[in-house]
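Practice record 12: protein with pyridoxal-5'-phosphate.
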Amino acid sequence: MGHSDSVINVQARQNFWMPFSPNKEFKEEPRMYVRGEGMYLYKPNGDKVIDASAGLFCVAAGHCRPEIAQAVYDQLSTLDYTMPFTRAHPKAFELAEEIAQFTPGDLNRIFFCCSGSESVDSAMKIALAYHRVRGEGHRQLFVSRERAYHGVNMGGVALSGMINNRRAFGVGMPGVFHMRHTGLPENKFIKGQPEKGVDLAEDLTRICAMVGGENIAAVFVEPTAGSFGVLPPPKGYLDRLRAICDQHGILLVFDEVITGWGRMGAAFGAQKFNVTPDLLTMAKAVTNAAQPLGAVAVRQDIYDTITNKGPEKGIEFFHGYTYSAHPASCAAGLAMMEIFRKERLIERAAEMSDYFLDGVFSLRDIPGVIDIRGIGMMAAVEIAAGAAPGARGHEAQKALFDANLNLKATGDSLIMGPPFIAERSHIDEIINKMRTTLTTLSKSW
Ligand SMILES: Cc1ncc(COP(=O)(O)O)c(C=O)c1O
């Protein structure tokens, strides 16, 4: 398998409790990387692994970009840290201004945090604070969706609709209602947005009728559900959610932690689907994942309302993190903004999308492949469940690693979302490795 040196290290070193991982299995049978460059990760024995999922859909510009490494080094050797409460540094302002060039509509006020999960919980608090200062503090409820992933902090877990992320922790916060997901059985093997399913948005109308739309603070959706296995929105669905939110004075939040920064073939899902939310969360590709950074882009008048209603000289919004707008993260973000512009990375993602999706959809004839979904530069191949749900997906991602391909499996969906620097030859390599490995595995399914 080519990872014998790491076996020795890992078995001797048991202290690391790995997140979202089968710890016992991994420590018996480690699969490690020691280096990255461009489209590839490298195993300890030097084998080159093509990164079909850009890490966790975050390394949009490819691994180990020297411009970002240099920017982080320069920043850390100039100003490594300053407290973000009541003090600041110039790059936080510069990065917020840059980000606001890409965000939709007037979502031009940027609140920084350190991860996607924190951006979701921050957005929940901004929504609650906004309603409260307007005298609508009774808006305490949230709506999200089955099969949603909104991170792992308590608010985000309550919003999420993935059972394993919830069951060990109770249901998280009370007061969250879930719409049905949009993965309809009749929408199998559809490239892009399905025609059917707009009616599912009426779940929001039903929830409003049940709990009172005037009691709902915000609706959270991923424009395309990502982590669960890529569910592009049915045509008209997001527009309908927007209209129902407007009707009831509810804020619409797009969680664009994955879909943001080009993954959909536009800067954000908001532009791709032509629906503007009131708040938008982001993380991952904003720094090419070279430094942790999350953010909430907020409609200007929401920011104005919260700040103007606050005290003349006191704090207006009691929220923030020690590492909010960390100088090194802002430096990485600014270097990434330059890469986005110089390399036309978002446009590149849009241009490569058809080739990528055609390749992925060509895998539909492999026995055991029961669905393929994809949009922009993100796609999932779903294989028929075996004895236990997720068991085949888990085996497949290990076999793919052994075949020198890296991707993320959720349940039995194998999710791909390569870096946007991918050339056609890289896409071909990904598709060929998928075909060979899945065809071999399918003989035992
Ligand atoms: C839509 C969405 N929201 C939130 C998160 C959580 O982000 P993080 O892992 O940076 O906390 C993710 C992570 O994949 C995500 O896909």
